[in-house]
Prior knowledge:
The complex is a heterodimer of chains A (324) and B (335).
Chain A: H1 3-25, E1 37-42, E2 63-69, E3 81-90, E4 93-101, E5 118-124, E6 143-149, H2 150-158, H3 163-166, H4 185-188, E7 202-207, E8 214-215, E9 222-228, E10 231-239, E11 253-262, E12 274-275, E13 279-287, H5 294-323
Parallel strand pairs in A: 1-3, 1-13
Antiparallel strand pairs in A: 2-3, 2-12, 3-4, 4-10, 5-6, 5-11, 6-7, 7-8, 9-10, 11-12, 11-13
Chain B: H1 9-12, H2 21-49, H3 56-94, H4 98-120, H5 124-148, H6 153-181, H7 191-214, H8 222-241, H9 247-255, H10 265-282, H11 287-299, H12 306-320, H13 324-332
Amino acid sequence: MPMNAKATVLGITALVLLAATALTLADMRLASSQTVTLLAKRSEKEIPLDDPFDRVWRRAGPVETPLSAQQTIPPKGGGDRTVTARALHYEDRLYVLLEWEDDTEDSLVSQQTEFSDAVAVQFPVAPGETVPSFCMGDPTAPVNVWQWKAAWQRDMQQGFVDVEDAYPNMQVDLYPFEKEDVFYPARAVGNVYAEAPRQTAADNLLAGSFGTLTQAEDQIVQGTGEWRRGKWRVVFARDLAAGGDYAQFAEDESTNVAFAVWDGSNGERDGMKSVSQFLTLEVSPDVAERGRKVTVWLIVLVATGATAMMLVLALYGRHRKGAQ
Amino acid sequence: MLDGIRSRPAAQRLALPSLPAESFRQLTTVLLAAVLAETLLLRGAVRVGVHVPKDRAISDLFEAASVLGSLAFNFASILAIVLVTLLVGSLAVQRKGALARIVLVMPGLAMLSGLSLTLATDKPEADALFGVSAAILACVVLLAAIGERKISPMEGAAMALILAAYLSYQYYALSYLFYRLLDVAAVPPASMSFLRLGEVLAVAASATAFLAWGLPRRHLIGPLGLVAVAAVLLVLTLAALSPVSTVAILALWTTGLGLFLPFPIYPVALGLYLLTIVACWRSRDGFWTASGLLLVLLAGYMAEATYQHILLVLALAFLAGSFTRMDQVAIDAPE
């Protein structure tokens, strides 16, 4: 190879290295995300927290996301599922609606073999160039998790399900100290799983890697779910801006969002879940209106594409004919 | 290959007016090294390592790996943009007709414009321009090469499967993007089916690539190649069987595969694919095929960043022989 060609290769490599070093020192990466975006538009209509099937959600663009089994850390579990996500914001509150198929409504956990259906949303605490690991975040990039459980909602709506409810024919002579805190040690030390009466069906949590999931001090997330004809719909709500080290949202800003689903009848709990990767969540100032009819746009797109294709083919044929 | 190169400037510089074919090979080798380093340091080690309990010294090592990985990422990203620009230019120079040049250059220019816009702004229109033009360029590069070069049906099938897998993912990503731009509040038809289909096609492409390029060169794999591939598969299988598995992280972060098919299919497909790369790498005429296959693997199935799309377009160009012709020109050049 001639010397000048070698010099050209070396020159290009050196220039590229110089530019790459400058970008790296500036903590930038020369790439743009091309992931699917979940758009949270502004709703002009109030979003009822107690009705996940409300018509207002027809104004939100759905994103269907694949979930796969959590296969990284024991207890592994979950499976190949999909979850459909929608998001809106109304009067400085963000609402996220999740919908997934589940043949059984599992909201009773009164026996040791029963587990609750549940769903969770995960955001980076601090959005930026470094996206946390979708597996419960990194020590240097923690995540904020909102988790809703069907059993907790049932506790709130129908009262705490006690042993007598699970075993109505049980006989007990005497439970000493039944009315005292010491009788319920988990509840006495503030274990969230033993909380009664429950304040919210959606828990606000923080994590910075596996095994670090912790209930946050501020329970600022609301959540309501409803199972209807083999389908769960759960709506989460929280203020866009929240005090504390939690995910923050604002109009015209983006962050990442991931989802997890638990199927109680499949014995799923804790790490046994189906998880998604991170998508982009964008809080848009645009007003959410009834979406246009998809069929009209499909026809327009197909017609435009076909016309363009015919034009290119006609031009090409004419060109070849001319060349012959 | 180097033996055949003659010092006739007109032949050497036919495809790229200012860059000889051998220089292209060298730049491609540098790109492969950078992409490999980025994959191992940024997407691999850092993502897996973050979950490994470690003391200060190990923590510093991971920090260093992260910085080096970012550097390799930026280096590979810039070099890939340079190479794809040169590719579009060279393809245009090789065409005879004006229309053919336009058909090749237009998506290339559109992709580069979309890239500039998407890097500078967060506009979904820029993402759409980039995504659509990258998909069209990938198709055009492959069709142009297939139209001109005699390739075996198996080679054609392997390339078509790789392209189809890419287009399946692009359908999923772009259909949502267009629904957003058109303000359609609905799930695009069959988007999830296309996403799953793409993963099946990606796995099928591995086996087909082996039949197309690996099997005819199997004698070149050698014991060392077999041991290397077996070692990679052993590590992956043990990782999958261990209680704390890193396979899912590796699969999702480095290749974008959801692993929804039965697990044994993935190591088998990967094994065949790696054997093909080794065989091509060691063959006299397999440099561009090995480079293309390696870039397809490193670009991953779910191209979630512009950088991965560019790698995939380059990979298809390598596989389609867009650069082989330049080598050929240099080799065939009379004294």
